[in-house]
Amino acid sequence: MSAVASAPKGLEGVVAAETEMSFIDGQKGILEYVGIPIGELSSNSTFEETVFLLWNKRLPKQNELDEFTQNLRKRYELPKGMEQRVTSLPKTAEPMHVLRTLVSSLAMYDSDPNANDVDAAQDKALNILGHAPTIVAYFDRHRRGLDLVHPDTSLSFAENFLYMLNGEKPTETMARAFDICMILHADHGLNNSTFTTRVIISTLSDVYSAITGAIGSLRGPLHGGANEGVMKMLNEIPTVDDAEAYIMGKIQRKDKIMGFGHRVYKTKDPRATDLQSLAKKLAEDTGNQELYAKSHIIEQVMERELGAKGIYPNVDFYSATTYHCIGLKLDLFTPMFALSRIGGWAGHMLEQLADNRLYRPKAQYVGAHDQPYVAMSDR
Ligand code: SDX
After folding, report:
1. Domain CATH code at residue 236
2. Same domain, yes or no: 318 and 195
3. Is the shortest distance between the CB of 184 and ligand 1 below 6 Å?
4. Does residue 262's CB lie within 6 angstroms of at least one atom of ligand 1?
5. pTM (predicted TM-score)
6. Is 31 helix (H, G, I), strand (E, B) or coil?
7. Given 110, 123, 150, 223, which residue is catalytic?
């Protein structure tokens, strides 16, 4: 049988979809959402406007943004009965497992969970986008033994999440920092969790299943889970003076260093540049200068030692310091990535539904043929 030309491992370099959302130039370190440079959006936009842009392929007029924002805020509070699900969970559960499980259970509170025409899919995506922050905040309050803080629909997505988590309204600086993090993490081409979304929805399965699968993919340490790995690494370094020796040891042991390297970027991830300035400012504001200083030394050593291999900071490297300075616990870092990426996952889901073809690649059979069935007594 003639061998079929097999795709490279991990589908590296294979184009498996068309999109009008993110454009990435991995050599030049360029990222655009619907043609707008990511730096323009992180400086001037909001997460709500960015999600509208990704889903509608254009910036909204003021009345459209107001309507979209109001429609999202109506979904902040969980469906009746979901609150008990959150507070019945073991306090030791991992937040990403909680998010994956409870997003999946949202389908049971939806009167028409399987509808996936584009309008219904967008409506369900909005449900998940509105409810997910509340799930994470409610669970964190529950595990800390604190009363739940119910959402405030007068607040933006970023303000409301920090309010529900901390029980007080965030400062403008912290709310804006979190909003920028949400903008920067919203979409990024056909990354593993986005591809997962498209694969699942291509069977015309339901929106809740597609986003649940994506959350499962994102928690992997080679993907969204890396930001937690970066924080663990920074916490292992006793002082700034130990940073160079620490990272040299990891390089010499050929460890995979979390927050560095990328399948597409072979130069610094433009999101890392934005997050670096945010991390630097927040570290100074919150007395975490050491954390930033360690990160900066690590980046310099990594560039000296591995820059020639195209290994540079990715989105996860400085998001760790940023999230820490905002006051988020380490095991909430990856859930933060998920809250934002629901926007991108849903956008790709809408694109897939608009021009669907079931994903079904081939596997190259490399095993034996014409084998006999051996009776148990003869094995
Ligand atoms: C995200 O796809 C996306 O867009 C993802 C993302 C998004 O927005 O959705 O950008 C978010 O997931 C960012 C990546 C977060 N993950 C990490 O930070 C984990 C650490 N990074 C590596 O595991 C790795 O860089 C990957 C997984 C991100 C990419 O790996 P590839 O493309 O499969 O590359 P590879 O593992 O084949 O490495 C090629 C070479 C190897 O060396 P050699 O065997 O050729 O000598 O580079 C080395 C690797 O050892 N290398 C690293 C390294 N990453 C690659 N060496 C040390 N530290 C690293 N981080």
Report:
1. 1.10.230.10
2. no
3. no
4. yes
5. 0.97
6. strand
7. 223
Predicted pLDDT of residue 4: 58
Nearest atom of ligand 1 to the alpha carbon of 251: 57
Q: Is 191 in the pocket of ligand 1 (CB under 6 A)?
A: yes
41: domain range? 18-221+334-354
Q: Is residue 248 within a helix (H) or strand (E), and if so which, with residue range? A: helix 243-252
Chain centroid, CA 115 distance in Å: 25
**Domain at 51, CATH number:** 1.10.580.10
Residue 198 sits in the same domain as residue 254: no
Distance CA 357, CA 202 (A): 6
Any idea what DSSP says for residue 307?
G
Tokens, residue 232: 């663990």
Q: Backbone phi, then psi, for 370, in 5-degree steps? A: 50, 45
- How far is Cα 318 from Cα 321, in angstroms, rounded to an integer? 5
pLDDT beneath 50, residues of the chain: 1
| Cα gap 132→137, rounded to integer Å | 9
What's residue 2's pLDDT?
Answer: 54
The answer to whether residue 8 sits within a structural domain is no
How many Cα atoms occupy the beta-carbon half-sphere of 335 within 13 Å?
26
Structural domain tally of the chain? Answer: 2
Is residue 90 packed enough to be buried (19+ CB in 10 Å), middle (13-18) or exposed (0-12)?
A: exposed
Catalytic residue of the set 179, 187, 206, 316? 316
Domain membership of residue 361 (yes or no) is: no
Q: Which of 30, 222, 316 to mutate to test the pocket of ligand 1 (most atoms within 8 A of CB)?
A: 222
**Is the domain of 322 the same as that of 339?**
no
DSSP string, 291-304: HHHHHHHHHHHHHH
Q: What angle do CA 334, 339, 345 make, to 5 degrees?
A: 105
Residues with Cβ within 8 Å of 107's Cβ and at least 6 positions away in sequence, in order, are: 113, 206, 208, 209
Query: What is the reported pLDDT for 7?
Result: 81
Pairing of strands 22-25, 36-37: unpaired
Statement to judge: residues 158 and 290 lie in one domain = no
Q: Is the dihedral of CA 322, 325, 327, 328 positive or negative?
A: positive
pLDDT at residue 297, as a whole number: 98
What's the alpha-carbon Rg for the chain, to the nearest Å? 22
Together in a domain, 190 and 247 = no
Final residue in a domain of this structure, among 307, 326, 345: 326
Structure tokens at 277: 């300035």
